Amino acid sequence: MKKITGLVMAAVALLTLAACGGGNDKTADSSAEKTTDQLAAIKDAGVLKVATSADYAPFEFHTMVDGKDKVVGADIDLVNEIAKELGVKAEISDMSFNTVLASLKEGKSDIAISAISATAERKEQFDFTDNYYNPPQVMIINKKNQGTFTSLAALKNKNVGAQKGSIQEDIVKTQIKDAKLVSIEKVPNMVVEVNSGSLDAMVVEKTIAESYVQQNPELMIADIDLEPSEDEAFAIALPKGSDELQTELNKIIKKLSDEGKIDEYVQTNHELAEKSAE
């Protein structure tokens, strides 16, 4: 973060007040005003605009419903319930994972949910809700390499995939330091490459891995432990300064978590993903 002098901050504050309609002795905190208006705007519009990348079953993925392609998943169930609690409708936009947060920053979406980890780096640019799910991380390999890839050391100089812009990239960099990180936009593309042998392994969240292994019998989850981290837990990303919206969403998340609904969403959609693959 750049340090800003008091003089510059004062100038910025005056410009902000002017942009909001003039500085006629307005004493309300501009950021609080912004976040209150943000939540009110969502309710007034009757729509919660949601950015996601629907390639990460069981959290967000495509399936056929009544003959039509539809984005479903645990994250989608969660935002639909949030929208219901807010009295609005969720409008889901599917895009590449590395553009999900960009969409939020550009104001094209109100929230971003796509199995996103609230890392320290991301927190510098976005606000996040409380964590709603903390998944274990695993490695997918081809079964023919079961006897070869039995430790992290065995992956030295090997090609290990991770979704571009994801926490898994950091896991490869920090825990499999001697491997060659290969960043790929879509998880299904990584699966194809592990199948073909152009990737030796890929790092992904355990529930996601189980779905893909179920669909691809030649693949397996490697018997290699990866260290868990609180940074890997999933949270909903919000525009910076979203105090009011953040507070409201945290209340809803806590309620659903206490009721066991979020775990239920994960399990139900895990089963749906397996069924869809049959």
From TrEMBL:
Superkingdom of origin organism: Bacteria
**Name of the molecule in the record:** Transporter substrate-binding domain-containing protein
Q: By its UniProt entry, which Pfam families does this protein fall under? A: SBP_bac_3
InterPro entries cross-referenced by the UniProt entry:
Iontro_rcpt_C, Solute-binding_3/MltF_N
The residues covered by the Ionotropic glutamate receptor C-terminal domain are 47-265
List, alphabetically, the PANTHER family matched: ARGININE-BINDING EXTRACELLULAR PROTEIN ARTP (PTHR35936:SF17), MEMBRANE-BOUND LYTIC MUREIN TRANSGLYCOSYLASE F (PTHR35936)
Per UniProt, the keywords (alphabetical) are: Signal
List, alphabetically, the SMART domains matched: PBPb, PBPe
Q: Which residues form the Solute-binding protein family 3/N-terminal domain?
A: 47-269
Q: Which organism is it from?
A: Enterococcus xiangfangensis
Report the leader peptide range. 1-18
